[in-house]
Amino acid sequence: MMNELECMRTFVKVAEVGSFTEAARQMNCAKSAITKRINQLEAQLELQLFQRSTRQLSITEGGNVFYQRSIHILADLAQAKADVSTQEWSLSGTLSVSCVSSFTQAYLADDLCDFRQQHPDLRIDLSQHDRYCDPVQEGFDLSIQTDMPHSGVLEKVDIAPVRRLIVASPDYIERHGVPSTPKALQQHILAHNRYIHPDFVMHFEGRQGDESIPFTPVISSNTITLLRSAVMKGECLAMMPLFYIENEIQSGGFVPVLTDYRIKKTTLCAFYRKSSFVPMKARIFLNFLRQKYNEPAPWEQRLLQQKPELAYALGVNLTRDVD
């Protein structure tokens, strides 16, 4: 006998990831089981849900109508189950999160441990990455990153501001000096994080106007760990987010340069599937993060208390934002 809800969940997953194989991986079952459920559903509905070929899977017009109704039905069911739960705010199941490696290392790993201490029945599944991650396509409850290409099936929530500085080690400055203008960077040795900026151009906002400076890095990587190591060893200058290098600046190991200019702020966001019902575990974790990292971010407050001269470079109003 066909399990209609299981077939409906399977259909929604295949529609969202665009692949029977990927749906099977995310649902932890055999591809043949996915195929059987879709075939049963199509037979009951007397409707072809997908156009199949050896190279492509696409949803039909009728399949799209059924998809829209299915996500509402499944959301209503999940909400009903949450409403009658006898353990309000007691979370269980698995919270599946992906996050950029820099924020994972600096904050999120500890945050997840703290959050699980509050909800001991909850399991955590964390993946870190240095690329754009689509939580629907890859099967996560939340994907935390600075930005990603527009998608009509995703919602986003702002978590924290990401302000960046260009820094060098004292050893590098002793050997090569300090750039006095953005254009002078072209005469220096640079490392670059191509995850944030795939093009080799730095964009500055200055008191006299904006400047865009093309450059050729000696080191480029999609992971910020290499940039920090290169700067620490005195090899180069690099632009990095403040949350990742706060301790090095506080200790004097990294020296900010070009502090009369500022680099355009980005925002760390949480992306999740657009739905009328967001799972309680995801909603509560999002609130946990937003309360902790509301602007001004804690790392900015700590650093500006010690180094108020960085206020302009960070675009922070000291009288308003720092206690």
Describe the structure.
The chain has 323 residues and is an alpha/beta fold. It contains 13 helices and 15 strands. The chain has helices at 4-17, 20-27, 31-45, 61-83, 101-118, 135-138, 170-176, 224-232, 242-251, 280-293, 298-306, 311-314, 318-321, and strands at 50-52, 57-59, 93-100, 122-129, 142-145, 154-162, 164-168, 190-193, 201-206, 209-214, 219-221, 237-241, 255-257, 261-263, 266-273. The strands form four sheets. It has a five-stranded mixed beta sheet with strand order 4-3-5-15-6, with helices on one face. α1 packs across α2 (20-27). The model has no long low-confidence stretch (mean pLDDT 87).
Helix content: 40-55%
Shape type: elongated
Terminus-to-terminus distance: 65 Å
| Number of β-strand runs | 15
Low-pLDDT ranges = none
**Beta-strand residue percentage:** 15-25%
Widest beta sheet: strand line-up? 4-3-5-15-6
* Sheet with the most strands, sense and barrel status: 5 strands, mixed
What are the SSEs and their pairings?
Blueprint: H1 4-17, H2 20-27, H3 31-45, E1 50-52, E2 57-59, H4 61-83, E3 93-100, H5 101-118, E4 122-129, H6 135-138, E5 142-145, E6 154-162, E7 164-168, H7 170-176, E8 190-193, E9 201-206, E10 209-214, E11 219-221, H8 224-232, E12 237-241, H9 242-251, E13 255-257, E14 261-263, E15 266-273, H10 280-293, H11 298-306, H12 311-314, H13 318-321
Parallel strand pairs: 3-4, 3-5, 8-11, 8-12
Antiparallel strand pairs: 1-2, 5-15, 6-15, 7-12, 7-13, 9-10, 9-14
